[in-house]
Amino acid sequence: MSGASSPAGRHHLGxxxxxxxxxxxxxxxxxxxxxxxxxxxxxxxxxxxxxxVHYDLVANSVADVRDRLDPYLSEVPVEAVIxxxxxxxxxxxxxxxxxxxxxxxxxxxxxxxxRTISFEQVGPLAILSRATLFLVRGKPVFxxxxxxxxxxxxxxxxILPAVQHLVEELER
Length: 172
Hints:
CATH superfamily: MoaB/Mog-like domain
Distance between the termini: 27 Å
CATH architecture: 3-Layer(aba) Sandwich
Largest sheet: 6 strands, mixed
Number of helices: 6
Shape: globular
Mean pLDDT: 92
Strand order of the largest sheet: 2-1-3-6-5-4
Low-confidence stretches: 1-11
Number of domains: 1
Strand content: 15-25%
Radius of gyration: 16 Å
């Protein structure tokens, strides 16, 4: 098979459309000056031709994440969100909980694939990650772990190849 009749022809990955992102770092310990993973996310996105419409850093609490994301999700130039941090198993890792409270619809495949890729890098500790993808108010919100390696892996291997198609599907 080739061309439009093949699955790859119907469902493209990547593409040239510039997506407007929010990058929200969730941390009780970092500041904007030392938020290496959040800065990496911004760099990877802009390096791939996308726009970072907003970058913010909030405390790791359900209310703070929800209150910061809520107005961004109403903005037209915001088409996707990446949160960095707060996806572990400690009592202070609350990003996933905030997205659930916001009525997010989980797309389990993202987290499953992320943990599969992560397993190759960190072994069985990959099961400790709650990295996930939610649809909140019709926009994809990728919840990533806070480490640099995790951010690079998720953005390069999963988000960049699929985000344009995902956003286009959600706009239909």
